[in-house]
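Deviations from the work plan: none for this task. Representative record:
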Amino acid sequence: MMKDVRLERDVQTTTAKIEARNVQVYYGQNHALKDVDVDILDKTVTAFIGPSGCGKSTFLRCLNRMNDTVASARVEGSIKIDGEDIYDARVDPVQLRAKVGMVFQKPNPFPKSIYDNVAYGPKIHGMTRNKAELDAVVEACLRKAALWNEVKDRLLSPGTGLSGGQQQRLCIARAIATSPEVLLMDEPCSALDPIATAQVEELIDELRSQFSVVIVTHSMQQAARVSQKTAFFHLGYLVEYGETGAIFTNPKDPRTESYITGRIG
Amino acid sequence: MSGSLFEQDRKTAVRNAAEKRFRAYGLTAIILALLALVWLLISILGNGLPAFRQTMMTFPVTLDAAVLDKSGNRTPEELAKVTTIAYGKVLATSLTAELAARGIDIGALQPKDIGSLISEESSAQLRNKVLADPALIGTVIPFTVLATGRIDGYFKGRVTMASAALDKNTSPEKLVLADKMKDAGILAMRFNTGFFFLPDASDKRPEAAGLGVAIIGSAYMMLIVLLLTLPIGVAASVYLQEFAPKNWFTDLIEVNIANLAAVPSIVYGILGLSFFINFAGLPRSAPIVGGLVLVLMTLPRIIIPTRAALQAVPPSIRDAALGVGASKLQTVFHHVLPLAMPGVLTGTIIGLAQALGETAPLLLIGMVAFVKDFPSAPPQGFFDPASALPVQIFNWTTRGDPGFVERASGAIIVLLVFLVIMNAGAIALRSRFERRW
């Protein structure tokens, strides 16, 4: 089922969706992320790799201001999406999160029906006018998440009753239901078995046509399979950022090379 | 380590022995606790179950117009002048006549002695019945009266011939007559509905004492506690758990709530006395004051389990809701609170059950008073004097007549039944909500 990943690796766009400049993140006294500058492209899968505690998840959570929920976290520098600084005082994080969807490490469907899981976002944002429209959105999102055929007969049964891989695809359907422009994924496959992982990876590749996808992963193979651009984080620094093929075959920084070849991590 | 696996080495033997000893200690503790529980139940049931049956006498009562309405014009003013003593005489005369008609030998007893078999409370009941319907005067009506506490005690084994011989309130001859009346079908033990519907009665009339006012008073207070603590407690918990900034002030509030839950309940009684009664001028002995005092006492006991229930909701659910762009408020009310609801409800019901059994603070705000009149319907009834179940139990245990020991134990059974129902409700709610997914 897997497509030939090398053909997909060509970056098709060059417009920057997200521009981060001089980003610093502190958790209390702990300086967790240092001087991060990066341009994330539209309609591209960007992978963040690096050892545990390197700051890759922290940076991901800056992109939709999920770090706001951590009382001790402090973010400096500028992160612009479509030229607008998301840390500007005028920005409401709730509105931002509708535009920047997120999929978490562990599948976390709401303990509600499959239908309600997907319909929740459009409902609270008032994106549909009636039940028929909402039904259409739910179906479209479940189709995009490659889950429709498996659940179309039991939309009203609980989302928590699905298998792990199905749950994660449900979470992806839920995230894309608010029509985001950027989709953040925090190790979306780390709790899944290899078959479910393959399904989700294939899905990510398809989502690229509509969204700018940023994925944090522990697995270098996964980064190589799904992403066009890769960023390597180490000890809070963004060490190297570039074409995925180049990062894996010809890393410029010795730390990147050490990590890829398994000497650090 | 070498040696055969078939032989226990020294260390293993010591460890196994320690484990065996620990199991024995645990089992002993549980057995002791069970024995205490069994003892409690036997004692309460043994003393209290008789309270649910009451000795009553049924016979035709001749409502003699010459005694009850001397003027003969049936005006309410004239009728109201006739005291319960006159009605007592009517009952005594009627019972004597009935005994004679049935050919029951009353021996040396006088009509006055026969009247003393009947509870004074019944004279009052007959008077109320006649005042409500003066047309009954001059007719013969079937009427059921309560036997006095001593006669009731005789059939429940509390009073014996030997003890009656020493008792100025009764005599062995009266007990013999009571036995004959029982054989003749005039006197019988019946289910004691009065225990649930009658108000408290004076020290001399344990046979007429009921829990009516106490049950209503407790019900009013529980209503006040539920209506105030659930919204206030949940709002406070949600704010503290989900919205409050983490700073020294929040910490101070948290520590204080934890401490308040451990404050002896009598302290809340003093607070209620000085604030609600002396300062705010609310009436003494009223369910509104009792309810408000219990609200203060119950709030921390509801906030703590509610916060625990909110905390137990996995953070991934909050992340998921925030991640699709729900606001903090939507996250809490659409996802976190519904998931915490079984815990919240369980905490609330257990808090209510504690409040239901609370005695000390109510003593201080005057709910220990003797209340004979039923409070009216709410909301006015919240301000009328009332009693409460645990206070009624306390009250009865302090009285002299042995008939009240039985009443108090019976009231404990009623209170325990209410508590068991509430706790069962908590368990049922919990399992029902948890089974949803």
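Chain B has two domains: 52-207, 212-434.
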